[in-house]
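We close this part of the discussion by returning to an individual protein. Part of our work consisted of pairing the sequence of a single chain with a tokenised description of its backbone. No coordinates are needed to read the tokens, only the vocabulary itself. The amino acid sequence and the backbone structure tokens for this protein are reproduced below:
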Amino acid sequence: MEYSYGRSDHRVEADDFGRQHHDALIAAGKAGSLLKQWIWILQLIRSLPEWLATRISPDLDLVVRVQRRVKKQIIQIKSQPENTYRDLSHPTLFHELIQSDLSESDKSVQRLTDEALIVVGAGTITTSWTLAVATYHLLASPRILPILKKELKSAIPDPNIDVPLAVLDQLPYLAAVVQEALRLSYGVSSRLQRISPQKAILFTNKRSGKQWNIPSNTPVGMTSVMMHHDESIFPDSKAFVPERWIENPRLDRYMLSFSKGSRHHLQAVWVRFGSGGENGVRDEDDEGILELWKTGLEDVEIVADGFIPLTQEGSKGIRIKVKS
């Protein structure tokens, strides 16, 4: 939010961590398949009074409310003087776009609102899910966490000092943990279609030699879930095994989720905390421990596609206890 709009919603400080925003993004994902075919349904919900929209479809009403809030923010940014954001410590995406030499149609309120929904949505729900998946597997595996903590503490002797990203990028096991978390969180689980507008695509099965000629202007897509669980590429694909990325660095060719993860978030947690439970891991200088609470593998395994990965109905997500 700060890099998009120059402000923060302070959801981390909220008692429920801004759950309504999370629920709205999940609802938007679930509605995606329906709205892709019948976009007029969303347009109808937009036109209704809020009290009526809530009664007809609480989930879609949440989506519309997020859209309205984002649109209001874009209008506010467009109405501000050019020098409003100059005192910020970093540039902001939408201030820069508005001040750019893009065409006026590309800087229209509706166009920027659509872009903002994609940027903020992609930068929150998918990233947070990747971190949640990593956290679960690190706490659930007494084998992996000690290796990661040893590497982190060797590279970061003082956890109170900010570490440049370039330093974190040189830590092989941290990179492997991030890659494995990305693989099992998928990014977007839906099929993202691509079209070759002018040329036909010739596809050859290297094993059988069979060929397919895909005509131009034909939408082609495949879910990352299929690729990330191809047992010929990722043996024991449902297991969290960071070592596979160290043993075969070229596996990144088959990664269809994001290309990079948030090393800063992971190192900030695990350089300070250990894990609890029967097989807990804790160093003498750890500030505390994190322990899974009423959370199992079913809370991180994908069971449905809602544009983003969906877990079992009724799951309360990753829940942990923080102990001193």
The radius of gyration is 22 Å. Residues 259-268 have pLDDT under 50 and may be disordered. Residues 165 and 261 are 11 Å apart (CA to CA).
